[in-house]
Write a structure and sequence with these properties.
Length: 75
């Protein structure tokens, strides 16, 4: 699974960090850091984090579990 966060769009609401803390974290008050290659075991948490982003800043390829298929799951 490959994650991309549009850091220009991200407003630091941190919903992703609450829902998938092993993948997303806030550094300081508003700087988001994340693992762009999240483990498969994190798929469900990442899906929730993507859906919870209020500004739709997160996209995830491979969220659907397929190796080659791209899934733009930003909500």
């Amino acid at each position: 699974m490959r994650l991309v966060v549009d850091l220009n769009r991200c407003q630091g609401y941190a919903q992703c960090a609450f829902l998938a803390p092993d993948v997303f974290a806030l550094h300081g008050e508003e700087a988001l850091v994340y693992n762009p290659r999240a483990e498969r075991e994190q798929r469900e948490r990442v899906a929730r984090a993507v859906a919870a982003c209020p500004v739709q800043a997160i996209t995830a390829d491979g969220l659907d579990g397929s190796a080659g298929g791209a899934s733009d799951a930003a909500h």
